[in-house]
Design goal:
The complex is a heterodimer of chains A (364) and B (240).
Chain A (H helix, E strand, L loop, with lengths): L4 E10 L2 E11 L4 E5 L6 H8 L7 E6 L2 E2 L6 H5 L2 E4 L10 H11 L4 H14 L15 H13 L5 E5 L7 H18 L2 E6 L2 H7 L2 E6 L2 E7 H6 L4 H6 L5 E10 L2 E6 L2 E5 L8 E6 L5 E2 L8 E13 L2 E7 L5 E7 L9 E6 L4 E3 L6 E2 L2 E2 L1
Parallel strand pairs in A: 3-8, 3-9, 6-7, 7-8
Antiparallel strand pairs in A: 1-2, 1-4, 4-5, 9-10, 11-12, 11-14, 12-13, 14-20, 15-19, 16-17, 16-19, 17-18, 21-22
Chain B lengths: L1 H23 L3 H34 L5 H10 L5 H12 L14 H25 L4 H8 L4 H11 L1 H16 L3 H7 L9 H11 L2 H29 L3
Classes of the chains: A alpha+beta (364), B mainly alpha (240).
Chain lengths: 364, 240
């Protein structure tokens, strides 16, 4: 299937400096792509550039295989897409006036405008607010109006820039659920900017990880969570247990890594003598020894136990300065300073495909 | 001494009752002055709105070298002394002056021009400030909604309509109570360029306190209505 929207190496400069380095992305019909990253990563800049709302320094944007600005005027592009921002950005007047505004700008007849606005106000549960001035709306109601104003246009691509970031948690959860339902049903191609990984995972199939104006990884949500390309990606998506080690042996597909006083095995490839940055997958780590010899076992002392809901987050010092974090049931809570064994299969060790440059095993 | 004091107050009291009498009996001369005053000032400020709003929007939205200098020049117009405007316009409109061929001296048109010059900077400034106070992201949202350039200006004009009404009223309030320029370019001709302010000056000079007071009351009422409406609109505008 051909992409409905494609951005080729677009970049944005502000005051002579790149706020977005060349970045490419594509969205297929019905597909939802998250742009994820920490604050100041350039997520909004990327979205605004792709939406044709800020000038790009270089690169091209193609919508339905037509290049914006040459084969298709920007106004025509804007009239086939829609955007919802963090602030509702409603105009003076009633909810109905705002919901109908985009249709009015497109010259849609009054009867049709009313019909479609009614439909979408109903869908977003704001029918009872139709005649209310926007200045009297709560944050959630205003954002629902903003969503209705975008969805009523039946756009071919939807741009969301952290639409729920300013809402309280219950309102955010409800709206997120409703939006996911609507997007599933309408199958509108969507670009969704967020700094909340759960939001990205709940709504999007694919994800682009952005940091300091640079794209780091673009893949399916699952791939990014299971196979982060680099240490920075893992850090940004909030993963713990990232360590440095040295490859000391490669025995028929089983690589041994020296990590402090420990030796661990992984089924991944590595060059003997090379320093590696790797991840111990938190969800695969277990407290207690395993009898069969295939598992890695690392001993250490419990340094801290933190209750998080039904589970405990246990920090185990396994040698200076390494501290491994893992989850355990609250029923098998270890005591502080207790000596424990952490066991995990070779697959729990993930060597980042992109390694930082090193000199003689030290970080360069 | 006591009797002179009493005469003074009784004369003033008679002046006030006479003023009310002139108004309620629709004295033709009095009403002609009121009509001319409203006609001239309304026309001048409507023209100021027509020219000042686009200039104000343009100043607020564009970014070019000398923009702030231009804005400062327009803002200086805020404090433009009316008599200086009257003087310059009078010189230009003299029979042998550069605009003498227009034959506008001592006509309502000359007064409209003078009042237009005085009120336009007010409209420009208040429009520019109103636009600058809008959330800058609103423009991006309008663009994303598919607004063309002209649609966007229209939407923004609609968005600042209350400050615009305020701008109009501020301009109107300034020119209807202005006397220097009106007197100099208009000349206070009855039925034509005699307006409330010039009439008050003249009647007071001639000792006709009743008429002067009648005009004064009307002027105060007009200004009160303008300021009252302005306040009401601003209250509508206030976030609730």
């Amino acid at each position: 299937m051909t992409a409905v929207l494609r951005a080729e190496k677009i970049s944005v400069k502000r005051a002579g400096r790149f706020t977005l380095e060349p970045c490419s992305l594509s969205i297929e019909p019905g597909e939802r792509l998250a742009i994820y990253g920490p604050n100041g990563a350039g997520k909004s800049t990327l979205l605004q550039a792709v939406a044709g709302l800020v000038p790009t320094a270089a690169g091209a944007i193609a919508f339905c295989d037509m290049t914006i600005g040459t084969e298709m005027p920007a106004l025509g592009y804007h009239r086939r897409t829609a955007a919802v921002f963090q602030e509702p950005l409603l105009l003076r007047g009633t909810v109905r006036h705002n919901v109908e505004l985009g249709l009015k700008l497109r010259g849609v007849a009054a009867a049709e405008r009313t019909r479609r606005a009614n439909l979408w106000m109903e869908r977003l549960r704001i029918t009872h607010l139709a005649d209310r001035p926007t200045s009297l709306l709560s944050g959630g109601e205003a954002q629902r109006t903003s969503l209705a104003r975008a969805l009523v246009l039946e756009p071919e691509v939807l741009f969301f820039d952290e639409p729920f970031a300013a809402l309280d948690a219950p309102t955010r959860g409800r709206l997120l659920g409703e939006l996911a339902e609507i997007l599933d049903e309408q199958r509108i191609a969507t670009l969704f900017v967020t700094h909340d990984l759960d939001e990205a995972a709940a709504l999007c199939q694919r994800c682009l990880v952005l940091d300091a104006g640079r794209p780091l990884q673009q893949d399916t949500m699952t791939a990014i969570l299971e196979r982060p390309l680099s240490r920075r990606v893992a850090e940004i998506i909030g993963m713990a247990n990232i360590f440095d080690g040295l490859v000391i042996a490669d025995d028929r597909g089983t690589v041994s890594i020296e990590w402090g006083d420990h030796r661990i095995r992984t089924s991944l490839q590595g060059t003997v003598g090379a320093g590696v940055t790797f991840l111990l997958r938190q969800e695969r780590l277990k407290l207690g020894a395993r009898s069969d010899g295939t598992f890695n076992e690392v001993r250490g002392r419990v340094q801290r136990v933190r209750r998080r809901g039904a589970l405990n987050l246990v920090s185990v010092r396994v040698g200076n300065p390494h501290c491994v974090q893992l989850w355990c049931e609250s029923t098998e809570q270890p005591a502080l300073n207790q000596e424990v064994t952490i066991s995990f299969p070779p697959e729990a060790v993930w060597i980042f495909p992109q390694q930082p440059s090193r000199v003689n095993g030290e970080l360069g | 001494m006591a009797s002179a004091n009493w005469d003074y107050w009784s004369e003033l009291g008679t002046g006030f009752t006479d003023a009310v009498f002139l108004l309620v009996t629709f004295d033709p001369e009095t009403w002609s002055v009121i009509r001319q005053s409203l006609l001239i000032s309304t026309t001048a400020t409507l023209a100021a709105l027509l020219i000042g709003v686009p200039i104000g929007m343009w100043i607020a939205l564009s970014s070019f070298r000398g923009r702030s200098l231009l804005f400062t020049i327009f803002n200086t117009g805020f404090g433009l002394p009316p008599v200086v405007v009257g003087l310059i316009l009078s010189i230009l409109l003299l029979r042998h002056g550069p605009l003498g061929w227009l034959n506008l001296r001592f006509t309502p048109a000359a007064m409209i021009i003078a009042q237009f010059i005085l009120s336009t900077p007010i409209v420009i400034n208040l429009t520019a400030v109103a636009i600058q106070q809008l959330n800058p992201k609103l423009w991006m949202q309008m663009k994303a909604l598919g607004a063309s350039r002209s649609q966007m200006l229209w939407l923004m004009g609609r968005e600042i309509r209350l400050p615009l009404i305020g701008a109009y009223m501020a301009g109107f309030g300034a020119v209807i109570s202005e006397v220097g320029a009106s007197q100099m370019v208009g000349g206070n001709l009855p039925g034509s360029t005699r307006v409330l302010t010039t009439a008050i000056v003249m009647e007071t000079g001639m000792g006709h306190y009743d008429r002067a007071m009648a005009y004064g009351i009307i002027l105060l009422l007009l200004v009160a209505v303008v300021v009252g409406l302005l306040t009401w609109f601003q209250q509508q505008d206030a976030p609730r």
